[in-house]
Amino acid sequence: MDDDVVDAELAGLLTDGQAAVERADWPSAQRSFEAALRREETPQALDGLAQALFFQGEYGAAIEQRERAFELFRVAGDDVSAAMCARFVAFLYGVVYGNRAAFSGWLARARTLIEATGDSSERARIELTQANMAADPEVRDRHLAAAVDIARRAGDTDTVFDVMSHRGLHLVLQGSVDEGMALLDEALAAVAGGEVRDLIAVGSMYCKMLHACEVTSDVRRAEDWLELAEGFVARTNHRPISAICRTHYGGILIAAGRWSDAEHQLEVSAELYEQTYRALRRSAVVRLAVLRVRQGRLEEASQLLVGAEHDSYAVRPQVELHLARGEADLAMSRIERFLREHPETELTAPIQLLLVQAQLKQGERDSAAAPGRAAQR
Questions:
Q1: CA dist 109 → 70, 80, 152, 281, 299 (Å)
Q2: DSSP codes joined into one string, 130-182
């Protein structure tokens, strides 16, 4: 067959695959990219196949295809695309397998490669990834500022609005609720208006909104956005987003006293995590433990918290469980250790409220014991 004909057929298959990606038709995209690879192994076809596999929940296969695409992009001298592949592989090793070493190694490769390039969408997204990892608020804000500046210069509106949603959430966590929610609302309005095309960015933005709603116990707003998020999941098959959003919604329902609804949301969320981002499943389990304590099902709560001793998000149910069992000293010890290690996080305020409860419990116990001590004297 003439080389020009082969090239034309290959280009046509790649075009068909990309068109299927645009309409979130993942099986069709997979078929087109696999057909392209039978003609010639190209990094573009491997990358497209990885994306199709990812949205069908085939995470191990998606990693394999992106790792191979990384190699071929490097051979071709396309370091921006290679960095994108490295970042994607790092992400999946983290959220699916909880492999911190692989996550750190691949993200380091992405950073190293992108440093030698100019402004690009990928450079902006790596800055955003670094912002998400930063424990220091000043470091996080520097990365967010760099991400939005680079994204604007690169004409990447997806990342501009994604950064806006991150900033909004962080403002809410810091107590600037009105300002933060305004940014989140604007970012999600951009999604509704079709200004954000990247599906992973869209999913992330829905999750940030539901997280903010959980922090502020805003049930009505959460219900409105969850409905839209579930519509997005139905259109794209991006099921991890349903797991994350339902986790936050379950937390909101616990605070609202809607325990039966919360139980349903959290059990569905835990099951979805098991099928998708398994390394993040504990976030749903921890909230389910909170619910079990509130329901008085203390042994079940204790079982759910096994293995979560060093998880900062598990501190709240651990302390509530100790208090429910009358173990005020253990509750105080856990609270004090947490506040030493995490002096300023979104969890600080609720843990400080539990500190007051623990102190009151200790006071009640000491008061009850005082007559006995006096009698002994």
A1: 10, 11, 24, 27, 45
A2: HHHH-SSHHHHHHHHHHHHHHHHHHT-HHHHHHHHHHHHHHHHHTT-HHHHHH
Give CA–CA dist 239/232, Å, rounded.
9
Contacts of 161 (CB under 8 A, 6+ apart): 186, 187, 190, 191, 195, 196, 201, 205
User: For the chain, where are the alpha helices, taking DSSP H only?
Assistant: 3-22, 26-39, 43-55, 59-75, 79-95, 100-115, 121-133, 137-154, 157-173, 177-192, 199-216, 219-236, 239-255, 259-275, 282-294, 298-304, 315-324, 328-341, 348-376
CA dihedral 60, 128, 346, 273 (to 10 degrees): -20
Here the tokens at position 92 are 């999946």
Q: Could you read off the pLDDT of 48-103 as tens digits, one per residue?
A: 999 999 999 999 999 999 999 999 999 999 999 999 999 999 999 999 999 999 99
| pTM of the shown model | 0.88
Residue type, 300: E
26 in Cβ contact with 11 (< 8 Å): no
Question: Left, alpha or beta for 121 (phi > 0: left; psi -120 to 50: alpha)?
Answer: alpha
In the chain, the domains with their CATH numbers are: 9-112 (1.25.40.10), 120-237 (1.25.40)
Report which of 51, 139, 44 is spatially closest to residue 92, judged by C-alpha positions: 51
Radius of gyration of the chain (CA): 24
Is residue 305 within 8 Å of 315, Cβ to Cβ?
A: no
